[in-house]
């Protein structure tokens, strides 16, 4: 976060400064007591939260695959995922899923 020490980035160990640079992030400049906050265990909670987020994203992709396979097995129609319909709705995540399902069913 502050560009000191080492980090794992894209599967490689490197200096934190280099990892931040490659991720196009700038190091944080800590204010009073923020350094303590980084040392009091919250970093473990953030790490676990980050891992949970990655797993949730992977699970969402697997759910898309299961949904596409189910739709094909039941001889369903993909018209509900038509992008014109998705563009009319104010839910960007729904559009992403519809695009993914359509690409899975096309491929």
Structure characterization notes:
The chain has 5 helices and 2 strands, in the order ββααααα. It is mainly alpha-helical and 107 residues long. It folds into 2 domains: 1-40, no CATH class; 57-107, no CATH class. It has a two-stranded antiparallel ribbon. A hairpin with a 2-residue loop joins strand 1 and strand 2 (12-15). Helix 3 crosses helix 5 (92-106). The longest helix is centred in the middle third of the chain and has 32 residues, at 42-73. The protein is elongated, with a radius of gyration of 21 Å. The two termini are 40 Å apart. The model has no long low-confidence stretch (mean pLDDT 92).
The main sheet comes to:
2 strands, antiparallel
What proportion of the residues form beta strands (DSSP E)? 5-15%
SSE pattern: EEHHHHH
What Rg, in angstroms, do the CA atoms define?
21 Å
How many domains is the backbone divided into? 2
Poorly predicted spans: none
Strand order of the largest sheet: 1-2
Mean pLDDT across residues: 92
- How many H/I helices? 5
Query: Which bin fits the share of residues in helices?
Result: 55-70%
Query: Count the strands?
Result: 2
The shape is elongated
Content-based structural category: mainly alpha
Task: Determine the N-to-C terminus distance.
Answer: 40 Å
Using brief descriptors, characterize the structure shown.
107 residues; two-stranded antiparallel ribbon; 7% strand; elongated
List the helices and strands and how they pair.
Elements: E1 6-9, E2 12-15, H1 16-22, H2 34-39, H3 42-73, H4 83-87, H5 92-106
Antiparallel strand pairs: 1-2
Helix pairs in contact: 3-5
């Amino acid at each position: 976060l502050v560009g000191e020490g080492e980090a794992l980035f894209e599967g490689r160990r490197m200096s934190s400064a280099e990892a931040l640079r490659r991720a196009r992030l700038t190091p944080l400049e800590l204010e009073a007591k923020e350094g303590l906050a980084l040392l009091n265990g919250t970093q473990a909670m953030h790490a676990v939260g980050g891992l949970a987020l990655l797993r949730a994203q992977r699970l969402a992709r697997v759910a898309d695959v299961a949904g596409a396979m189910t739709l094909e097995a039941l001889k369903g129609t993909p018209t509900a995922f038509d992008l014109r319909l998705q563009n009319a709705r104010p839910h960007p995540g729904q559009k992403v899923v519809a695009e993914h399902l359509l690409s899975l069913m096309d491929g």
